[in-house]
Amino acid sequence: MKRTKIVDLLKREDYGSQVCVKGWVRTKRGSKAVNFIALNDGSTINNVQVVADVEKFDPEMMKLITTGACLSVEGQMVQSIGSGQAVEIQATAIEVLGECPADYPMQKKGQSFEYMRQHAHMRLRTNTFGAVMRIRHNMAMAIHTYFHEHGYFYFHTPLITASDCEGAGNMFQVTTKNLYDLKKDEQGKIIYDDDFFGQQTSLTVSGQLEGELGATALGAIYTFGPTFRAENSNTPRHLAEFWMIEPEVAFIDQEELMDLEEDFIKYCVKWALDHCKDDLNFLNKMIDNGLIERLEGVLKETFVRLPYTKGIEILQEAIKNGRKFEFPCNWGDDLASEHERYLVEEHFKKPVIMTDYPREFKSFYMKQNEQTADGGSVGYQGAIAPGPTMQGTDVLFPQIGEIIGGSVREASYDKLMGEIERRKMDMTHLWWYLDTRKYGSCPHGGFGLGFERLILFVTGMQNIRDVIPFPRTPKNAEF
Ligand code: 4AD
Ligand code: MG
User: Fold this and answer.
1) Atom of ligand 1 at shortest distance to CA of 229?
2) Which residues have C-beta atoms less than 6 Å from ligand 1?
3) pTM for the complete prediction?
4) What would the pLDDT profile of 333-379 be if each residue is shown by its tens digit?
5) Which of 55, 71, 87, 307 has the fewest CB atoms within 10 Å of its CB?
6) What domains appear along the chain, each with residue ranges and CATH number?
């Protein structure tokens, strides 16, 4: 008999029909006469209740129906009164496809997330992780749909690269060399001539630079792939391997870029509310009571557009009024997550797009704001900053901090080269990037959304390790 997915079965009303479902036992309860088995097949957060009259089945087989066991059940679809669902199954045949001994790691309910992480291979079978993974899938669909509908081309950038987009040096090396027998030149530098690619290569930290090649040819592209950062950050917001979405658009200015960021995030959040109701209701009940309200709230809000310099003023005002922060925040300092969260959660109480950052802690490729005679610069809507700034457009979110990092790009060859020289950057492996500015250069911009940070926001989960199936973090590459 053909198997029906539980998600489909629970929508049916043709009571009396014979059906077959397969799935894993969540719970079994009941009396000597009747057993009630809650079965879940991962297609939905909801279980179907299987009713088994004990006397009709082999008692040895019935003993094998334990939490976690895998069953195939045939029976009659009947209207249910007590199971929380409209449908249940009166079993006529049960086969145990996979037994589940008592040392099953997901046996007990209410295990800590830390415990679950140590059993990441089995945690997917729990309600919480099932919900998170279904939402993760739906968010990927939202993203592809959004860009496809808006005329962006899905553009595949390489994962192995010879360039460091962010210039932060947090790269994982890729080599086939015998590390115990490295050839070095007179200065002690490693010779890569005989390595696989004939040069030093790494896993990419961002597809942006190649994305710019796509955008300045196809008009609008987006990437959606894994990126890698060898930063030793043991925080609930950082992974060594995470997925990033990077749209890159020709002929876009700062205002339009911020419009895109806002519209895109809202589309994703709305998609979750429209497509993931059951899973969100579950998470709202079990993980975070404010979740759905917060998601709906974001759709109603107009994001604040705030020059960095104004942000610093607000933070310093707060400090004057007695607010304490762990890290300093004077003009020129990179904002710590506590500062971002203060602005978003306490001061504005809505998402903030921060613009016009000091160039010292931003990347070389960002569009430089016009400088004033006294060394300041002119930013978004004429706001004056005391030093040189760049047209960054990061989105800061409640609970998360930075969810998007973006900018308008410097389109002028001379200005870009000026910045590269000022930073004393080695451009040997980026000659092709400079060609975008040499041949038919055009104004353009884009951003990177950290996929897992979006999933954190949409699920209300607290730790980024719990929104990706198999997290990669310092000292952890299990599974
Ligand atoms: O701000 P970032 O470093 O920006 C870039 O890489 C640009 N090249 C993107 C672009 O303009 N095309 O990273 C972008 C986003 C961050 O805002 C954050 O959401 C996420 O990527 N991110 C991380 N997520 C998880 N773990 C990490 N270690 C992350 N580092 C950045
Ligand atoms: Mg950033």
Assistant:
1) 28
2) 165-166, 206, 208, 229, 238-239, 242, 244, 246, 402-407, 446-448, 450, 452-453
3) 0.97
4) 999 989 999 999 999 999 999 999 999 999 999 999 999 999 999 99
5) 55
6) 6-98 (2.40.50.140), 127-170+205-466 (3.30.930.10)
